[in-house]
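Weekly modeling sync, notes
Attendees: S.R. (lead), two postdocs, one rotation student

Agenda item 3: backlog of single-chain predictions. S.R. asked that every request posted to the team notebook include the full sequence so nobody has to chase files. The rotation student volunteered to paste the first one in as an example of the format we agreed on. Action items at the bottom.

Example entry:
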Amino acid sequence: MMNEARSWAESVAISAGQIVFVGADEDVDAFVGSETRVVSLDGEMVLPGFHDSHVHLVTGGVELGQCNLNGLESRLAVLEAIESCAREASASDWIVGGGWDLPLFPDANPHRQELDRIAPDQAVYLSSADGHSAWVNSKALALAGIDRNTPDPVNGRIEHDEAGEPSGTLREAATGLIERNLPRLSEDDYARGLKRGLAMANQFGITSVIEANGTDPVLAAYERLARSGELTARVRVSLSIDETRDETQVDELLAKRAHAGRSEFLRADAAKIFADGVIEAHTAALLEPYVGSSSAGQLEIPRERLQPLVARLDREGFQVHFHAIGDRAIRESLDALEEARRRNGIRDSRHHIAHIELFHPDDIPRFQKLGVVANFQPLWAYADRYITDLTEPFLGPERSRWLYPIKTVVDSGAVAAAGSDWSVSSMNPLDAIQVALTRKGLSGEGESWISEERVDLPTMLRAYTEAGAYLQHHDDRTGSIEVGKAADIIILEKNLFDVPQSEIAGVEVLLTILGGKEVYRDERFSDVRSLRRESSPR
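Predicted structure, as returned to the notebook:
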């Protein structure tokens, strides 16, 4: 049931979109009438719908319709996919897409010449899987006027090759130098992207999401589907903050929040702040320099602008949603939230910090003390090539011990929620749950990475249900299977407590119900198991 008592039940009854009974089979007959649909299960598991607390449904869905490089495991596979995209595009078209993994290329720095060979006459823009880098060809650089003398923009970096020429890899804000030249997507493109993202979410049992970067067109897509009744998840949009501006921009966010309104399925009352970049590109902000470098990365917003901005957002009733990867970024985010509390008093804001990759252990107790939700992406908590090739070597063993310390954070008493950051990585909550339990990749091979940070199954189910609902301020409405709550429930093909930890990711969702209505059904889940009771209504 995922209620506070962690109790189990045999039967659930739903009426008018709400849960009206939870209990034993022998007591449910009072809720069954002649028109009641009864679904009998045999070994399957019923859970509350999953909450993805950090996801990019719109842009991820748009990317599915572009040159999609997500999940490709070799440099050759990436290049072959780009060749296919080039063949399908006309000579005058841009080739736009993304999803390439940084570890596939030396120093996470692919070269423009590889794209020039594939598409000499077409401009190419391909974002990295983590969204913090872009790979472009010579034509795209020329159209943007980028050459060896172009200075790095604020909060961005243009990578250069040994000859001093732009290599074709752009970091952080430098990607914007190209993005402003890309073909504009239409409102229909964004709406179609959102529908693709929602369909995938429902397939994975997700009934509630926090949109992680609500730019104007992204917000417009959610508003459009909300008006048409096509939203198949409860959505909280984190409105985008411009890190180069001060707190006066909050006035614009207030207008956007008012325009979006507040409905059962859509709210736009959160604000997204990028505190730093990513460790792999050395753009994450650290307390001490990267190994072998004098650089410790940098903050996207200096303290003197960050703290007034966060305090104003808190005062206006916005939930602050931080991106923070490095230990300095996490500390500065906590400092800003502590200062907001000092200025505004204690509020039920439920601010959260997402990604939280590298901690200084002194900052872990501050999450519980300040009421800040720790928003992990648990799928990243194993020794993949990002960790072994691009993270641990540049942090050293002492700091690397504090990468993704999920158990220590939970044991400190902090609320820990979970999200996918799709399309950066798999949206499937069961993938992430398995990794959090094993600290291994989904193949299950090798030793557990930082094994003392493994957590148990109830902890991860809570992160994806109760804690996710708490973070979205609708724990009174969703997050557990209890009488009076919305019928947001899912059926899994197996009981996760009966499945070996190394096989959890292979369990399929059979049915997803949002507010009593089916939004996803696996073809194997047929109505053969559904029966009609002949008894009269009671």
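Discussion: group reviewed the output briefly. The chain has 18 helices and 22 strands.
Action items: rotation student to repeat for the remaining queue; S.R. to check formatting next week.
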